[in-house]
Amino acid sequence: MSASAMAITVEGLGKRFGAVQAVDDVSFAVEPGEIFGFMGHNGAGKTTTLRILLGLTQPTRGRATVLGHDVVRATLDVRRVSGYLPASYALPPDMTAREFLLYVAAMFAIPPAQARARSEALLRRFGLEGAADRKLRGFSTGMTQKVGLAQALINEPRVLFLDEPTSGLDPLGRHELLEHLRALSQQQGVTVVFSSHILSDVETLCRRVAALHHARLIACGEIAALKREHGAATMDELYLELVRRQAS
Ligand SMILES: Nc1ncnc2c1ncn2[C@@H]1O[C@H](COP(=O)(O)OP(=O)(O)OP(=O)(O)O)[C@@H](O)[C@H]1O
């Protein structure tokens, strides 16, 4: 696939925070409609890369595009077509789920009637109708993640960036969330970047992955091919082998 046909392109991306090189010469591309896995240990640079792709942090080197929009020069276009579920964030405790979705819709300047229709559809889709008028302060981890995903979808994004979306979820909650993501990709052609430490979830959902290690990309490609290449039977084995090779 040519670079211009890619949903996301990342070329020689770098980010330095003072003395810390958070992302170092990272390049990869994501195809439209694919669910692309992003793995790496704590502090490897995953969140920083996602935040650069969303235009929330400026790179110190390199360039990246989302649906052809340069993430530095066309940040507003990038935000318009993107949804983001951060790894951790505080929902406003005194808002109800419904109020919160309408609030996020207003930030995207979605007209009120459309905002109401989308909010109701998302509340239904995530089984939150019964809790829609409850204040967010009492929401469980699973319900909070569903609200988080609903807010990330309010602008009907074509590209969805998810940072650790399944952490803290029970097996049923994880399964439901993975099914939602699969449906978004397969039925609506949404491109998903799925960053996770839970390698079984990455394997369940993604055909291709990138692995970051100490800010650098140490592997990128099809999971099946990477496993073959590195003689790994499982995803955990693959990841450990990739990291081991860096150390030796
Ligand atoms: N705003 C910041 N200021 C200074 N250093 C930062 C900042 N954001 C990230 N870093 C540093 O950059 C490095 C990469 O962090 P990042 O959050 O991108 O990693 P990560 O792979 O997402 O980790 P985790 O899995 O723990 O979320 C870390 O050393 C981190 O401390």
TrEMBL record:
<dbReference type="GO" id="GO:0005524">
    <property type="term" value="F:ATP binding"/>
</dbReference>
<comment type="similarity">
    <text>Belongs to the ABC transporter superfamily.</text>
</comment>
<keyword id="KW-0813">Transport</keyword>
<dbReference type="Pfam" id="PF00005">
    <property type="entry name" value="ABC_tran"/>
</dbReference>
<dbReference type="InterPro" id="IPR027417">
    <property type="entry name" value="P-loop_NTPase"/>
</dbReference>
<keyword id="KW-0547">Nucleotide-binding</keyword>
<dbReference type="InterPro" id="IPR003593">
    <property type="entry name" value="AAA+_ATPase"/>
</dbReference>
<protein>
    <submittedName>
        <fullName>ABC transporter ATP-binding protein</fullName>
    </submittedName>
</protein>
<feature type="domain" description="ABC transporter">
    <location>
        <begin position="8"/>
        <end position="239"/>
    </location>
</feature>
<dbReference type="InterPro" id="IPR003439">
    <property type="entry name" value="ABC_transporter-like_ATP-bd"/>
</dbReference>
<dbReference type="InterPro" id="IPR050763">
    <property type="entry name" value="ABC_transporter_ATP-binding"/>
</dbReference>
<keyword id="KW-0067">ATP-binding</keyword>
<keyword id="KW-0536">Nodulation</keyword>
